[in-house]
Amino acid sequence: MKIMLADYVNWFNNFRIYSTLGYFSPKDYKLHNLKKLSNLVLIIQLEKEKIFQNMPYNDIIDVKMR
Fold first, then answer.
1. What's this model's pTM, rounded to 2 decimal places?
2. Integer angstrom CA distances of residue 52 from 43, 47, 66
3. Which of 11, 18, 29, 44 would be 24's cystine partner, CB 3.0–4.6 Å?
4. Dist. CA 56–CA 61, nearest whole Å
5. The pLDDT of residue 8
């Protein structure tokens, strides 16, 4: 009985598709959003690098020290 319950809880929490999660399973929803978040962080980093490339060297050091 415990194994059956554990299997059900695993299915319910990790594999069942939720309409409120955009028809993703909780596991896939988390991975999907982590990918979106990591892409956003990458874009922000690239934008910072663009800004730093256009700044005089002393201003870059001052910004990084904050």
1. 0.50
2. 14, 9, 14
3. 29
4. 9
5. 94
Which structure tokens are listed for 6?
A: 């554990």
- Neighbouring CB atoms inside 10 A of 30's CB total 13
Low-confidence residues of the chain: pLDDT under 50: 60, 65-66
CA distance 19 to 11: 16
Cβ 24 vs Cβ 32: under 8 Å = yes
Phi, psi (rounded to 5 degrees) for 18? -110, 130
DSSP 66: -
Please give the structure tokens belonging to residue 33: 């959003």
